[in-house]
TrEMBL record:
Residues annotated as transmembrane: 42-61, 73-95, 138-159, 171-191
Residue intervals of the Fatty acid hydroxylase domain: 178-308
Pfam families for the chain: FA_hydroxylase (PF04116)
Listed name of the protein: C-5 sterol desaturase
Length: 338
């Protein structure tokens, strides 16, 4: 595909989309129904539909029976870890293999013309972003994802929290599934904003930000505190009356969905003229500029409300520069008064 129909490439070779990032259309006033209806299919397909499909596969083929889950044991915890690790290995691995190893679409639609594998850096274990990110994902973050999973399944199995049945409340549960990605955005925004606070950033979140040019394995490359808090989004289903399948969906939106922001390409070409939108740009800008786009793609536009939204345009750059300038002035004024 010709990526210059959709964006521009600078002298260095970095590509950026020509359009602007738009928050979800139901936030505009007066509401435009056709726009909302046009947006809805992309909300469901393909990413959220995929997360629901994996949640169902887990529920019917992976998760042990309720009797087993009444007591926590290494057996079923390790089994869940093995499946989570294998699933991420395959799912993220497909993107890594096709777009970063085989480089099937070269740098078409690629925000940063460089491939992390080509640039060794001392911030990473073994000087390798790929190896560092891979090891952190599989030996730190995915075990913590599994801890969250074991805890909520154990709570449901023992009846410590309400277990809403699909037969009894199908509409309520369907609505909960629909808003789960919004719960994810709000949860992620606030924990993420918190760990950007200086001392917590240096202690926790700097690990994730070592990858300025993220690739699929960067998605779950986190400090253990972040790895746990990030997946703890599923615990909201112990607070709101819910169902374990919805909680699994919530968990998968976090675990599997983390890859979206770190794909590095705007579109993933499937054939000569079809492509899937990656929805990676907002979070790519976060990795590039740090203090913008703490949340997601504007489903719940918290960044807009808190003044940290970068829509990828020149105006977005100007707003960000003005904000950074003000921050510098504040810091200098404080330093001068001491
Ligand atoms: Zn990230
Ligand atoms: Zn961050």
């Amino acid at each position: 595909m010709d990526d210059l129909k959709y964006g521009v490439r600078d002298k260095r070779g970095d590509w950026k989309p020509s359009g602007r990032l738009e928050i979800a259309p139901f936030w505009s006033w007066p509401p435009k129904l056709p726009k909302v209806l046009g947006w809805l299919p992309g909300y469901i397909w393909p990413w959220n539909a995929f997360h629901m499909a994996t949640a169902l596969l887990y529920w019917f083929y992976v998760v042990p029976n309720v009797e087993t889950m009444k007591s926590i044991s290494w057996g079923w915890a390790l089994w869940l870890y093995a499946v989570n690790a294998a699933a991420i290995f395959v799912f993220y691995g497909i993107f890594e293999l096709r777009y970063y190893v085989q480089r099937a679409q070269a740098t078409r639609f690629k925000y940063n013309h460089k491939f992390p594998g080509d640039t060794p850096s001392d911030v990473f274990w073994f000087q390798s972003q790929n190896l560092d990110n891979f090891l952190r994902s599989f030996f730190i973050t995915i075990p913590l994802w599994t801890v969250v999973e074991v805890i909520f399944l154990w709570c449901f199995a023992n009846g410590y929290v309400p277990w809403v049945g699909w037969q009894d409340h199908p509409i309520y549960l369907a609505a909960l599934v629909l808003i789960a990605p919004a719960i994810h955005e709000v949860h992620f925004f606030f924990i993420h904003r918190l760990i950007h606070w200086g001392p917590l950033y240096r202690w926790i979140h700097s690990v994730h930000h070592n990858s300025i040019n993220p690739s699929p394995w960067s998605s779950l490359s986190m400090h253990p505190v972040e790895g746990f808090l990030y997946h703890a989004v599923a615990f909201w289903h112990l607070v709101i009356p819910s169902n374990p399948i919805v909680a699994l969906f919530q968990l998968h939106v976090a675990g599997f969905g983390a890859v979206n922001g770190h794909l590095g390409f705007e579109k993933l070409e499937l054939t000569e003229d079809t492509a899937v939108s990656s929805e990676a740009y907002a979070h790519y800008l976060h990795h590039k500029y740090f203090e913008v786009n703490y949340g997601g793609e504007g489903l719940i536009p918290l960044d807009k409300w808190f003044g940290t939204w970068h829509d990828g345009t020149k105006e977005g750059d100007a707003l960000m520069d003005a904000r950074f300038q003000k921050k510098r002035e504040r810091v200098n004024a404080r330093a001068a008064s001491h």
